[in-house]
Amino acid sequence: MNKPLGILGGTFDPPHLAHLVLAEQARAQLGLERVLFCPVGQQPLKADYSVTPVEHRLAMVQLAIAGQPHFELSLVDVNRPGPHYTGDMLALLHANYANTDFNFIVGTDSLRDFLRWRDPARIISLARLAVARRPGSQPDMAELDAALPGLRERLVWLDTPWLDISATDIRRRVRLGLPIRYLVPLPVEAYIEQHELYTQPWHPGN
Q1: How confident is the model at residue 158 (pLDDT cuts 50, 70, 90)?
Q2: What is the pTM of this model?
């Protein structure tokens, strides 16, 4: 069996320091060989949101993770037609990485909404959920257990610092001309400025 891998998915619009802290804490605590950053083309639960073109989001993720050899950009989700469901992405990763255990990294906000996801039973059959606690976001574990027997055996809780940084707020700050330094890596800040991202009216999303 190969060393386990971490999976961090999302729109990354833009990637920010909280993403990097979460990935590094999961890597260290779970003994992960690597953490794959897997941007999605369009998240089904965010179909009504305006998302920055994928080429910009991929470029920003690559800039954000540069210099950390245990972080890797994966195109598994963007190089396929939508809709982009997590279970399908994990199945493709299993095909590409034989004999590997996967840890899908989420926050308690995602766990709280997990029953809304497409085929959550399939997801936990393909990966453990590595969950970071977030203040004010408490999942109903009794409801989750009733709907998904065996879920607790597929959960691992991470001890992570809580950084109250969101992509929604970063986009708002750019639009208003407020600084985003120390919220995103410097190369990502420079990319946003160079390509004049987030200067137009925006729609909320993470």
Answers
A1: very high
A2: 0.91
CA distance 10 to 19: 10
> Is residue 189 packed enough to be buried (19+ CB in 10 Å), middle (13-18) or exposed (0-12)?
buried
Tokens 């396929």 correspond to what residue?
A: 80
pLDDT band at 46 (very low <50, low <70, confident <90, very high): low
Q: Which pLDDT does position 6 carry in this prediction?
A: 98
User: What ranges in the chain are assigned the alpha helix state H?
Assistant: 17-30, 54-65, 86-96, 108-112, 120-126, 141-147, 167-176, 186-194
Token pair listed for 167 = 């992509």
> Which amino acid type is present at position 148?
L
**CA 93 to CA 137: how far, in whole Å?**
29
What is d(CA 130, CA 134) in angstroms, rounded to the nearest whole number?
A: 13
| CA-wise closest residue to 43 among 88, 73, 2 | 88
Give the whole-angstrom CA distance, residue 81 versus residue 203: 23
